[in-house]
Amino acid sequence: MTVERTALLWFGRASQDAATHTNLSAVRTDGKVLWLAGDETASIERLTADDEEKPAAYGDERSFRIADLVPLPGDDPDEEADIEGIARTGDFLWAVGSHSLRRRQIKDRHSGPKALKRLARVTGQENRQILVRIPVVEVDGLPTLVAEAEIGGERHHAAGLANHDNLRELLRYDEHLSPFLAIPSKDNGLDVEGIAVRGDRVYLGLRGPVLRGWAFVLELRPYVNPAEPSRLRLREFEDGLPYRKHVLDLDGLGVRDLCPAGDDMLVLAGPTMKLDGPVRIYRWRGAGLAAMPEIVRGENLVRELELTYGEGDDHAEGIGVIGPVEDGRLLVVHDSPAARRMTADGAIVADVIRLPR
User: Fold this and answer.
1) Res. 247: pLDDT tops 70
2) In what order do the strands lie in the sheet with 57-65?
3) Nearest to residue 190, comparing CAs of 174, 178, 201?
4) Which of 16, 22, 19 is CA-nearest to residue 337?
5) Are 343 and 349 within 8 A, CB to CB?
């Protein structure tokens, strides 16, 4: 991988105190601003570029609390939502939680029966089970998230999946994915880690499960019934199911992020288990035009780049196109950044890379 240049990400004191800046899990570029999320909070962050054409730094952070925009399923609106993907298209921003379970960790101070007891405990958090669409309007020249807005002569509200349209509920009887719903994400259980939107299509990339080396991308067709403006519903496909499954040969890796590139889809791939690498970017050719569930391999799935990673740190978690799609430049953000990515005055260093032509 060749880093063309870097960009500094400047976060405010609240985000630094919450360690959002070192737990980045999602990114999407949007003209002069950058949308980001961390996996330990229930908010979406907006940073503004110093130069829209060739940004060297993003700052002036504004944080948007998700519970102020759309109801969250958990009892505590500030409990982490584990946002793992952000998409920006038209007049809306989309965000998806991991929908995952987690297993307690054995820490250095634990040993014997206490350590084993921790390792046996599996927990879930309701706020992780979200897929939301939030209106975006321009305020003081910058895109801004709002709970509702007049768009195209119609009133639109922030909306999310609920009740029987919850993703885990939808997959209860799926022949491939249902056995993995009760398994924690780091054990190859269900784990959503990427979202891309093209027209009325919403693609969700799964870090896990990976089955015999095949990774999954779910395709949904959400819509809003005007009678229930804050609720997303799902259209059925030809087989009567409200989702479509695509499987990708990512050489045994899972999806860590999705990023539209015209009719193609860029796929950030990495291990589904608790491993550092490998980390790669693939191009799924014609993803936005798929007319049926696809087995994606061969010439339809091209390995574009190998990304560097650290030992226990520097895990690439999000990619976003910078500039014209045809230029092939991507901004890459990392979870658990290495020490070299954290400046003495508090900024985080992100990479700008260029895909091979």
Assistant:
1) yes
2) 24-30, 33-38, 43-49, 57-65, 3-9, 348-354, 329-335, 315-321
3) 178
4) 22
5) yes
d(CA 67, CA 83): 13
Cα separations (Å) of 301 from 117, 263, 264?
43, 13, 10
- Give residues with Cβ within 8 angstroms of 36, minimum separation 6: 9, 20, 24, 26, 27, 44, 45, 46, 47, 86, 318, 333
The partner residues of 293 in beta bridges, in order of sequence, read none
Does pTM top 0.85 for this prediction?
yes
Beta pairing class for 279-284 and 264-270: antiparallel
Q: What single letter denotes the amino acid at residue 240?
A: G
Structure tokens at 111: 């040993």
Q: Is the pLDDT of residue 127 over 70?
A: yes
Tens of pLDDT, residue by residue over 302-320, are 999 999 999 989 999 999 9
Helix ranges (H only) for 94-218 are: 112-120, 167-170
Does residue 115 carry a pLDDT above 90? no
CA dist 194 and 178 (Å) reads 19
